[in-house]
Amino acid sequence: MPDATTGEEARGSHEPLAVELSGVTKRFGDVVAVDDITLEIGENRFYALLGPSGCGKTTTLRMIGGFEDPDAGSIRLHGEDVTGLKPYQRPVNTVFQSYALFPHLNVFENVAFGLRRKKVPSAEVTERVGEMLDLVQLVGMDKRKPGQLSGGQRQRVALARALINHPRVLLLDEPLGALDLKLRKEMQIELKRIQNEVGITFVHVTHDQEEAMTMADTIAVMNEGRIERLGGPTEIYEDPRSAFVAGFLGASNLMQGDRKGNAATLQDGTTIALPEAGAAGVDGDIQLGVRPEKMSLQAPEAAPPGANSILATVVDVSFIGVSTHYLLRTSWGADLVVVVQNLDDERHAAGSSVAATWLPQHTFVVS
């Protein structure tokens, strides 16, 4: 599957891709963990492998890093075939969820560990460790042991240690999974800042949709060992193309319809206009969707002309501060979720009849 945001740019500039997988497959006994994956990642990209547990994302990352060998296919890093090379022979470093710091060494020596093994002169070690601690905003903490640091600080130490050897690709295996929500959000911003400053490719494995959309400029959504959707966060969110992606990357209201040209008829006879940009397709049974926050609620007689509209009954109302979440039930028994920003005092009580409306261009069709 071509990656227009990475591979094409790299080829256009005649530079080798940072990471290239061609027909890569990995089996564990009878289980196919990664199924004939081909992907291209250009230089200086923040690339996320996103998917649920067991989809093959971590196995893919481990093969890029050399911790697993593919059963078929090839892996190239910056144009060099590294398929059979050990992890230490590849120009990559990996940051794990568990941090993997040495508890008996202080921050300085944890970060300096790789340089010490390479017998880098002490003056250069001091200079480079200082630069790394400044990059990850840990200046003044060089004498502390890992046990004296917060989870976010330990993760920064792990990043500094991985980056100090100047890898050309940094692999991140769910690095924020052990942090609480507040720290995780702070580290999302920090990781993107660090990636921009060091100017290398980050390949990030996560099951957290918000995390991938916050940091990555390209997302590969994986399902059952394959890449189901590839593109930028906005592109994938607005046009998921499959029911799995629509449900995994955010929330979606999916409905069955009978398509005829640029419109589809729902089970209760309601006609839904399809977006002109995506109107090309075969007539017949389709599944269409709309995101909850793209919808609004009115009294049935107040539905705006030109908008798609479904009559429903409010089943439940949840006030979430910045927004109110409505659970609706349609006449044919399907449930819809509508998220309305709290911009005024209008409320729709449970049991009331409403029209759920949205603009035709916010409708998408999935396979």
Topology overview:
Layout: H1 7-12, E1 19-28, E2 31-41, E3 46-50, H2 57-65, E4 72-77, E5 80-81, E6 92-96, H3 107-117, H4 122-135, H5 151-163, E7 169-173, H6 181-198, E8 201-206, H7 209-215, E9 218-223, E10 226-231, H8 233-238, H9 243-248, E11 253-260, E12 263-265, E13 271-273, E14 284-290, E15 296-298, E16 308-319, E17 323-330, E18 335-341, E19 353-358, E20 364-366
Parallel strand pairs: 3-8, 3-9, 6-7, 7-8
Antiparallel strand pairs: 1-2, 1-4, 4-5, 9-10, 11-12, 11-14, 12-13, 14-20, 15-19, 16-17, 16-19, 17-18
Helix pairs in contact: 3-4, 3-5, 4-5
Fourth CATH level, the homologous superfamily of the domain at 252-366? Nucleic acid-binding proteins
Per CATH, the architecture of the domain at 252-366 is Beta Barrel
Cα(first) to Cα(last) distance is 17 Å
Shape: elongated
Largest sheet: 6 strands, mixed
Number of alpha- plus pi-helical segments: 9
Rounded mean pLDDT is 90
SSE topology string: HEEEHEEEHHHEHEHEEHHEEEEEEEEEE
Side-by-side strand order of the widest sheet: 6-7-8-3-9-10
CATH class annotation of the domain at 252-366 = Mainly Beta
Please report the total strand number as a whole number: 20
Structural class: alpha+beta
Q: Any idea what the radius of gyration is?
A: 24 Å
CATH topology of the domain at 252-366: OB fold (Dihydrolipoamide Acetyltransferase, E2P)
Q: Portion of residues in helices?
A: 10-25%
Descriptive notes:
With 367 residues, the protein is of the alpha+beta class. The chain has a domain at 252-366: Nucleic acid-binding proteins (OB fold (Dihydrolipoamide Acetyltransferase, E2P), Beta Barrel). It is built from nine helices and 20 strands. It has helices at residues 7-12, 57-65, 107-117, 122-135, 151-163, 181-198, 209-215, 233-238, 243-248; strands at residues 19-28, 31-41, 46-50, 72-77, 80-81, 92-96, 169-173, 201-206, 218-223, 226-231, 253-260, 263-265, 271-273, 284-290, 296-298, 308-319, 323-330, 335-341, 353-358, 364-366. The strands form four sheets. A six-stranded mixed sheet has the order 6-7-8-3-9-10, with helices on both faces. Strands 13-12-11-14-20 form a five-stranded antiparallel sheet, with no helix packed on it. It has a five-stranded antiparallel sheet with strand order 15-19-16-17-18, with no helix packed on it. α3 packs across α4 (122-135), α3 packs parallel to α5 (151-163) and α4 packs across α5. It is elongated. The model is unreliable at 1-13 (pLDDT under 50).
